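Example 3.2
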Amino acid sequence: MYNPSAAGGAANSRSGNRLFLYEVEGLRQNQETDKMDYPIRRSGTVLITVPYSRMNQEMQRITRMGGRIVSIRPMTAGDDANGVVNGKVSSTAEAHPVNEEPQSTTQAAGKKAMTQAKSKEKPDVPVNIYRPNTPYVGKCLSNEELVQSGGIGTVRHLTFDLSGGDLRYVEGQSIGIIPDGIDSKGKPHKLRLYSIASTRHGDDVDDKTVSLCVRQLEYKHPESGETIFGVCSTFLTQLQTGSDVKITGPVGKEMLLPANPEANVIMMATGTGIAPFRAYLWRMFKDAEKAANSDYQFKGFAWLIFGIPTTPNILYKQELEDLQAQYPDHFRVTYAISREQQNSEGGRMYIQHRVAEHADELWNMVKQEKTHTYICGLKGMEDGIDAAMTAAASKEDVTWKDYQRSIKERWHVETY
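Structure, written as tokens:
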């Protein structure tokens, strides 16, 4: 992740040239961060490189943006191996515009961006095979519309050729995309992060492709009223078959599937937050995938709760419903369609309302050691999910927040 706002401007003194890493959580996406092209995924933490001479100013700026500094440490040479390149954090990249969505539906992106959620230690997971200064250049093999007629916006399923390189990944990881062209300052565009929507074997199960699910960001400038389109999301959604695309990564260890094939997997998604869950489900249930994974044959129960604005916006709808029909004892999908369904109070039906409806059932699943819960999409759903789980847990005199902390290895979140 290239972050020009925090680095630079240091005094020429010996102390002024020292760099520190601020680990920050809770940053808000707002007009100030948008102007900075600031990468934020609010579920986790972001590392900010700060010169000694700007430490006080950065503390004040972070506070203004609603962030909390978790730790401060001097930057060392060893940080390069952990994803810090030239004083900028690179391993987490700029944004899940894979999950680029207007805020009223799913993921915010473009200039609204997310950082990779803080990783849990996972062995044998490929990370940063390709970095921003030496990206893999692949080709677009396909670019298909996912929103049906009458839906809102455009969401594309893109597949890229990996056969010319060594890019490997596993389900739940992300890749970075560096869009073509230059920014307003004449510099190359910064990369954005996107959740991978395919299994490690790719959509063709030949280990030669990677797929993304990308919504084109479109929003009104708060001052001019001008319509703004996300740089990277527009680049991708308009990408022609056969065009080159610069790819970095993979990154991320927060959203990995448990190795136990008998695990229960709860998935809560809004919009293009479905991307990693598509990868999970294809690995669990697709015939060709099952044939390719002799060491992983899913026998547990998977439940997807999916929030979207309209029925035509249900991404991968036919595939999801085919899987549910084929594996009714192992997979369940529940929709929250905000502009078509009403919650119990007569308002719009959002994902947190569906969670509240099924809170007791979900709580009973979460209590099982083999259950992992994944949340991907808008930050706004988290409070409602916590409220529903609080109510269910309190029936057994359990404090949800305390219990949630105790299962942090089984509670996985990437929201923004």
